[in-house]
Amino acid sequence: ADMAETVQKRLGLYFGWKELPHKQGCEIDYIKKGAMSLPPSSLKEGGHEWRFITRRNHFDMKLYARGMAVFGNQKMRVPVHSSVQQEQRAVVEEAFGHLRNVKDERESSDIPFFWHIPKASGTTVKETLSDCYGLVRTEMIKPPSSLEVIEDKHVLNVDLSTPDAVAVAKRMKVADRGIADVFVSQLSLEGSTVFTTYHMGRAFTIMRHPVKLAASLFYYRRIATWEPTYRP
C-alpha cells in the first residue's frame, strides 16, 4: 500500500506521469511483482535481531528518519556538518548546484533524476517508468555507454554507475540532448553533476527502512552469484 501511494499519489501526481492507455493496471502489477520477489525473513520488528541491526546502523536510521520527515512535508534541507572537510563541501555544493530545489516551481526544462538506492524498490520504479509510462530512462544495457536508445525497453544506453562514467556522460552533454525523460543513478552526488544550467535535475528517491534493507541485502547476497559481493 505504501509503495502504491508513493508511485501513484506522489510521483505520478508530482511529475504528471500516467499509465499509457494500453497499460492500465501496469503500476500495481509491478508493485505486486516486486513485493512477491522479496525473500522471506524471520525478522520481527522490535525483536532482538531487529534491535541489533538498528544499533549497528545508527546513521542509516538517522538518515531514514530525516527522509521520512522530508517525505511528510515535501521539503528538503541537506545540512553539512562543520567538521566536513572543505573539499567534501565543494563536492556537495557542485552536486546540488545542478539540482532544482523541490520548493521551486517546476520548469519545462527540468529533468527528473531518480537516485536509486539499492534494495529499496528501485527496480520496480524503473520498470514502471519505462513500461507503464513509456518514459525513456538512462541505463547501460550493453557496453559501451552510448547515446543509442533501445526502443523496445525505453532505455537510453548511457552509463551513470561510476564517477568516471558520469564524467563521460557529461562530455557527451547528454542532459542537453533531450533524449532521456528520466535520469537514473545510484550516485546521488556525482550523478547530479550530469545536469546543466539549461536542464536542471529534479531529484527524487525511494527509501526503505534500514533494518529491512539490511535483511534484504543479506538474503540477496546469498543467491546473487553474479555479484562481486556474493556470500553463500
Order of helices and strands: HHHHHEHEEEHEHEH
Lateral arrangement of strands in the main beta sheet: 5-1-6
As a whole number of angstroms, the C-alpha radius of gyration is 18 Å
For the largest beta-sheet, the strand count, sense and barrel status come to: 3 strands, parallel
Helix fraction, binned, reads 40-55%
Chain-averaged pLDDT: 82
Strand content: 5-15%
User: Structural class per helix/strand content?
Assistant: mainly alpha
Shape, per Cα inertia axes: globular
How far is the N terminus from the C terminus? 32 Å
Number of helices: 9
- List segments where confidence is low: pLDDT < 50 over at least 5 consecutive residues: 73-81
Give the tally of β-strands: 6
List the helices and strands and how they pair.
Blueprint lengths: L1 H14 L10 H11 L11 H9 L1 H16 L12 H11 L14 E5 L6 H11 L4 E2 L10 E2 L4 E2 L6 H9 L11 E3 L2 H5 L8 E5 L4 H14 L9
Parallel strand pairs: 1-5, 1-6, 2-4
Antiparallel strand pairs: 3-4
Helix pairs in contact: 2-6
